[in-house]
Amino acid sequence: QPHFSHRDGELFVEDVALRELAREHGTPLFVYSKAAMLSALAAYQRGFAGRKARICYAMKANSSLAVLQVFAQAGCGFDIVSGGELQRALAAGGRPADIIFSGVGKTRAEMRQALDSGIGCFNVESEAELEVLSEVATAAGAVAPVSIRVNPDVDPKTHPYISTGLKGNKFGVAHDRALAAYRRAAALPGLRVVGIDCHIGSQITAAAPYLDAMDRILDLVESVEAAGIALPHIDFGGGLGIAYQGEQPPAADALWARLFEKLDARGFGDRQFLIEPGRSLVGNAGACLTEVLYLKPGEQKNFCVVDAAMNDLPRPAMYQAWHAIVPLGASSAAASTYDIVGPVCESGDWIARDRELAVRPGDVLAVLSAGAYCMSMASNYNSRGRAAEVLVDGDRAVLIRARETVADQMRMERLLP
Ligand code: LLP
Which residues does the entry assign to the active site, renumbered to this chain (predicted)? Predict the structure, then answer.
């Protein structure tokens, strides 16, 4: 995480000491670097220089309004998966025409809301959805721009919960049904075909699955267009991984250089491209600060109990994910091997296992690579309020989300009469 680095033994994000932020705002606290987001985005922009391409940030990775604002101001569109995400994208200044709507379970109400907003494209995930969307559009006196999400059936070699492009998972239309689905879409009165899309999975660290998927998609573009249905854009989804623990995913520009070699060779280099990156834009732009509450030595394990938990950082519990954990500064404590765990009443509430740390109660730790799929997946389990968030830009730090109070949590509830 280049924008998070130690200076004279103190951990900084850009030009701000994390210890100061923890002192001012308390913990658990998510801290993001604007420069890190923009530099991750710049790698994609370099890869697309001279091409027709739009980067639609997959906002499920981190949907905090100020984060969306950074990407909207940098010229990004958004990939959304719900009416709630649509409202957030618009509230943050997203341009409706640059919004694409993915997801297997769009409701009629969400379709109507997206049509009324004038979004750029519906990424349709099933033949049944084509029928419903056409009905909703016709009733609204509109024509819905659609792309069909095709399942290219390649193995992204990632965690099974986040691989999506294989046969046998719920996403997309099977490759061998795609032509029929496009024929149906072209015949429906409420739809206008504007493209094709795929998304093969997340935290992908090799180029090969992308290269294979691109071949499979281009084969389909050829056969759909041979049937007389034009596909003005190709949306290649997201999924590029980040380094959590020394992984070496291809850089976005290097990956796209290889993809464009293939596209140029097959005569598709001048199409309009869309991509939907999430994690690779924000994952390594964030950290979660958490205070050590107790050290609990044991016979088999030593536990380091911190004030962040699985409700703040759900990835270890859900995917056995590994996040680096570093102290904010030097400690005079003796080093020991700990499992770092939260206060939630579940054995699954762990943040890291078997880590060597020199800490004592009151010290603050930074859980790194926490910009993606942490705050956006946070919950109130154990009636824990969600953490506060700060965005740093150079030497300035702005509180972009206040810590959630118990009153906030109980606001929608009613006692029995
Ligand atoms: N487009 C579609 C249709 C998606 O389903 C996703 C992610 C993306 C784009 C963005 O993928 P990314 O570039 O972020 O890999 N919670 C899991 C990850 C779930 C990904 C879901 N889909 C985790 O924490 O690892």
Answer: 345
Specify the pTM. Answer: 0.97
For residue 58, the CA-to-ligand 1 centroid distance in Å is 7
For 196-226, b/e burial (b = at least 16 CB within 10 A) is bbbbbbbbbbbeebbebbbebbbebbeebee
Q: Which of 231, 247, 275 is the C-terminal boundary of a domain?
A: 275
Is residue 328, in this structure, part of any structural domain at all?
yes
Pocket test for ligand 1, best of 166, 240, 279, 312 (most atoms within 8 A of CB): 279
Structure tokens at 389: 């968030």
Give the three-state DSSP class for 14.
Answer: coil
Question: How many distinct helices (H) and strands (E) make up the chain?
Answer: 12, 21
* CA proximity to 111, closest of 127, 92, 131, 94: 131
Residues 1-25 have pLDDT tens digits of 889 999 999 999 999 999 999 999 9
What's the pLDDT tens digit per position in 319-365?
999 999 999 998 889 999 999 999 999 999 999 999 999 999 999 99
Q: With the C-alpha atoms ordered 94, 96, 98, 100, is the resulting torsion angle positive or negative?
A: positive
Are 249 and 338 within one domain? no
Distance 293 CA to ligand 1 centre (A): 33
One-letter amino acid of 47 = G
Q: Give the domain range for residue 336.
A: 4-32+283-410
Residue 245 CB neighbours (<10 A) = 10
Question: 164 pLDDT band (50/70/90 cuts)?
Answer: low
Return d(Cα 17, Cα 117) in angstroms, integer. 42
Pocket around ligand 1 at a 6 A CB cut-off: 58, 61, 79, 102, 162, 164, 199, 202-203, 237-240, 276-280, 315, 319, 373
Residue 287 lies in a domain: yes
Mark the binding-site residues, compressed into ranges.
239, 276-279, 315, 319, 346, 373
Q: Indicate the annotated binding residues for pyridoxal 5'-phosphate.
A: 239, 276-279, 373
Same domain, 268 and 150: yes
Same domain, 153 and 270: yes
Q: What is the pLDDT of residues 266-301, one digit of tens each?
A: 999 999 999 999 999 999 999 999 999 999 999 999
- Do both 223 and 147 map to the same domain? yes
Q: What is the CATH number of the domain that holds 345?
A: 2.40.37.10
How many domains does the chain fold into? 2
* CATH number (domain holding residue 154): 3.20.20.10
